[in-house]
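ingest -> validate -> predict -> emit
validate: passed (alphabet ok, no gaps, 326 aa)
predict: started
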Amino acid sequence: MSTIKSIGILTSGGDAPGMNAAIRAVTRAAIYAGIKVYGIYHGYRGLIADEIEEFSTQNVSNIIQRGGTILKTARCKEFQTEEGRRQAYETLRRYKIDALVVIGGDGSLTGARIFGNEFSVPIVGLPGTIDNDLYGTDCTIGYDTALNTILECVDKIRDTATSHERLFFIEVMGRDAGFLALNGAIASGAEAAIIPEISTEVDQLGELIKAGFRKSKNSSIVLVAESPVTGGAMALAERVKNEYPEYDVRVTILGHLQRGGRPTAYDRILASRMGAAAIDALLDDQRNVMIGVKNDEIVYVPFSKAIKNEKPINRNLLDTLHRLSI
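emit:
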């Protein structure tokens, strides 16, 4: 029998579409199980600054369709210190919060792992990041919506690229992961994707140029993952101008467009399943685990694996993109 009577829920790091659906699911699944729920605003900062409110089912009504996060999010340097984490723990004790559900990406779950170990607080994480870079889950909350946003943008850029017979580098988010760039390229019919996972293996730009950007087409679109490893779209465009001046090159950086918007049906369902599973995990006395989905089944992934292991790119997708871009 679980001893958990109340939980806190927070969102941390970069926002992702579907976070509100996850907040709703965690809140309602907890209340259904007779557990009191506290919403913690502004991530770990709110835990330190006591920005906490008790949630009812009404607090999460009519939010499943909204992007962003009603709990807000913030980076918190204080939580990176032992003193800051102790303050956060004192806040939990004051509210008699027995466990935490943390929705966020790599950095958020790293903080959760440290905090959980230091103060023996049961914590369950939900993978909320558009980058899809957390190990142990096929998909993260927000990734599908971001991918669809990229698709919509690239379709529009294709119109002008074709009209002007230009080469476009379109930079997408992903930090050190190329999932958005690679799958965005396949879905949009782009000519190539430049991703960090293989940047040390081949000169991706050189390979593209060698292929002649396929003269059979009157425009070319290349998706680039924002990363110090790839250099980003601006650096690649500069290199084209210097080394291959015959190409008329343009750059579009999609930036925070990718974070916003109404979550897709897939992200709403994923977030809802994961949110309910987080409460199941706590009732089952699980701690320091991230909820994942593998082959459409809920799995519990230890924080240590989710954070430390690099999620591999599917090399077959690279081959598919290459074969279809002739």
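The mean pLDDT is 92.
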